[in-house]
Amino acid sequence: MTDVATIEAPATARAPGAPSGARASDPRRTSWPVLVVFVAPALLVYFGLTAYPAFRTIYDSFFTIEGLERIPVGLANYNALLQDETFWVAVRNTFVWAFVAPVLDVATGLLLALALYAGVPGARFLRIAWFTPVLLSYVVVAILWMWIYNYDWGVVNVGLRAVGLDSLTKSWLGDPNFALAAVIVTHAWKWAGFNMVVCLAAIHSLPSEVLEASELDNCGWAAKLRHIIVPMLKPTLLNLYVLAFIGKMKVFDLVWIMTGGGPLWATETVSTYVYKRAFNWNTFDLGYPSAIATVWFGVVCAAVILLNRVFRSKDRLEY
Amino acid sequence: MRVSPMMPRLFGRGALTLVIVAYTVYTLGPFLWLATMSVRTTGEISADHYAWPRVFHWEQFRIAWVDSDFATYFWNSAIVVISAVAVVTLVGAAAAHALARYRFRGNRLIYGILFSSIIFPPQITLISLYQILVDYNLYNSLIGLTLVYISLQLPLTVYLLEGFFARIPQDLFDAAKMDGYGDIEIFRRIVLPIGMPAIATTLILNFIQLWNEFLFAVVLITDPDKRTLPIGIRAFMGDHFQDIGMIAAGVMISVIPVILAYAFFSEKLIRGMTAGAVK
Questions:
Q1: Helix B6-38 / helix A138-148 crossing angle, nearest 10 deg
Q2: Inter-chain CB proximity A38 and B279 less than 8 Å
Q3: For residue range A38-49, what is the model confidence (pLDDT) as tens digits?
Q4: Choosing among A3, A29, A31, A35, which should be mutated to test the B contact, i.e. which has the most B CBs within 10 A?
Q5: Nearest-CA neighbor of B141 among B153, B124, B154, B129?
Q6: What is the C-alpha to C-alpha distance for residues B20 and B26, in angstroms, rounded to an integer?
Q7: pLDDT, tens digit, for every residue of A181-216?
Q8: Interface test with B, best of A111, A131, A134, A140 (most B CBs within 10 A)
Q9: Which of A12, A253, B108, B144 satisfies CB 3.0 to 4.6 Å to B133 for a cystine?
Q10: What is the Cα B31 distance to its own chain's centre?
Q11: Model-level pTM?
Q12: Do B124 and A148 lie within an 8 Å CB cutoff?
């Protein structure tokens, strides 16, 4: 290959640990054709299939697009969005989901990890067993849980009838009061194992002296959890929370397959609503759903930045 | 009196065991139930949804595979996922190597650009990708879906590999340069072999995520012959929602490759999935 001298300005050198050799032969520099060969394919994929479509969606949100016809409408789509009650119901559901469900996921994951850390017999098997749902696709999880929630023969109602609580049986996915909770439980079922594995790795990386000292002090497990484990794992737990939050702001597959957003918009999320308006209702307008997608894109980015800020500043205060 | 300190401990042990058994039933129960239903006929299932299979109807899998088109869906999924994973790994590894190894203006900017799209909600690209693929005659084509899948997994691939490649000692590269290796040779003959553990992790991770992908497939593929497994199963369920035995067999067909990958590479997979979450 070409061994051309470096072309980049040395002023940009960032690393203080640069080898003491001559600048010109810094081994961490290379010629730009080499860089192009390595980086261009990734940038091409990124700009062609992520950046350009994203910009195009934002641009499209100012039009009404029916087939090949594009009518510029200015901010009309955004105005319509403000009046769109279904959209606000979807926003509310998505926020409920995004703020509540991660607590469930992370708490379950932490408790499972602690059970494994306590050295129960068969921990290896349990770790694999509890992780399995993470691997299943949403279609599989959705089908399984639609059967579990089945009114006539689903295991929830069968179990309730078996213990004489017939009055509590209901069509879990068909009842607007319970459908969202039912789908959130299903989602937690899928993701608890992931949080468990991360928590377990984090617990193992804690200094063991602290845990041993607390054991000598006869510290009860609840106190140990509250005063030692949770504070020490805080960065990991917050990270998991943010990760779960991002996932929930995008949630689509499970809702779409299990309830389609129904009954009566009880489980409608922003994602399912965008999909409906773009591809499912026969309105044939791609401008309006583009506006929803654009707004939601802004909300997700802002929420992630905000959460990172809040959590990081809190951490700094405590130490 | 001597017994009393034992009591809470015994109780704690018992409670812990109870919770563990209950949670294991909760995670594995549905899966076992599915497995038993996949070898029972729908008639048998309707008679009793929770019975153990008396006769194992393995022919259910043959029927699902041949008569219910799950073979078509399976091979479509296999083609799309394997090609997307191969391309994204190569493209991602090349970029990750350059970003981890070379110092150049804009290095961190490019890394940030490539990585930040990991938080994008899918709808922001979905609607336009649909239009773009229609424009380029790639709508309803496996090639179009493959291209989209490559772009979906690129951020994660670059992120995981950059972290690993950055830890390869610089001495190796200096020595290789002395031996007259060019930049491409260094990548091919040093980075790729040494980075194999990390590359294997991304391969499995990308495979499982794309094998399970639903949203982009359901928008970009409507032709029944081009369906991937998740949308094939979902379409089958839509048409035959009472044919529980056959749905269960189809679901098992889609789950088996993932379980196999997990059985062989569980450590690598877990390390990949959790990378970045532990601080």
A1: 100
A2: no
A3: 999 999 999 999
A4: A35
A5: B129
A6: 10
A7: 999 999 999 999 999 999 988 888 887 777 777 767
A8: A140
A9: B144
A10: 18
A11: 0.88
A12: no
